[in-house]
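S1.2 Input.
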Amino acid sequence: MSTSENTTFSIRVSSTGDTFEVPANRTILHVLYENGYEVPLDCSNGRCGTCRTRYLSGEVDHRDTALSESERSEFLTVCVSRAHAGEVVLDLPPPQSTQPVERPIAVVEAPVCVACLNCVRFCTFGAARIDNALIGVGGIQGAAVIDADTCTGCGLCAAACPTGAIEMNISTHDSVIGTIHTLNTESVPELNTEVAEADVAEAPLSVMIFACPQCRDTTHEVCDAKSEQVSTHVQTRVVDVPCSGRVDTLQLMHAFESGADAVMVAGCQPGECFFNTGNLHVTQRVKRIADWLDGCGLERDRVHMMHLTPGDHDSLTNALDELTKKTGICGPSPLRRTASSPTQASTSR
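S1.3 Output.
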């Protein structure tokens, strides 16, 4: 976060009268979270509008790209907007707790870091750097650090880290793996010992979809509509992620290893990613998984990268139908019978 043009100002919450100072190196969002005020959050960089908050007075310096001019007369985005001077009064309800609200950020375990610079290259917000004062793996000089104030919580650095030294405090690698396994257990009959063999043969195909914040609502709506179709021969399960770039190769592999017949990643259109390049990085990972499937004799058509425009239900429905058709030709995944649990699967990079 560049602070060269920032000035200190104050915010006041109308419902409680609480007044807080917002220093030049902090955002309104940081200050609200630190004082127990929770605001919905997705991108942390003014591109989505999820954190938009009504303000009652103040000279607001709007720095987002999400709100229209008419919206800006009533709302601001607390993740990036500031005040030109003085005080901004926010229309927020009282906090449910006086405890700080946990904000998604990446954290580094220095003794596991190899200082490969992947995090520095993948982070487009300048939150990652190498601190030569730290000691990395094997006693090497230098390890990564993440600036918590600048971190947007997208998870791109964690997905790119080859050793697992970088982890998210929310949406951890192991929690994603656990979600994958739980959802597959619900949808894959072979993982339920109470299901009869005859029922297994007639079971629908299982498709797992990783969805980023922009694609989340559209993906859930399409999958809900699919589930209501009596004639459907597919069960879909959605894993919500903070960015499609958070999805790493192990998570994609575990989706298959834990019983999915097909996997889709629903990410933003090129150039529309909240975090700039997350959708491009995961596209390359999907291609690598397709090669892996071919090498294992499981057919590359079982995995698909979907660049989705929010609200485009038809395109997602068509892509899902095409993926299901190709997977139907391939047949149920042979990995269903040997599906691994989170404890059996490798959960570290």
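S1.4 Remarks. The first helix runs from residue 28 to 34.
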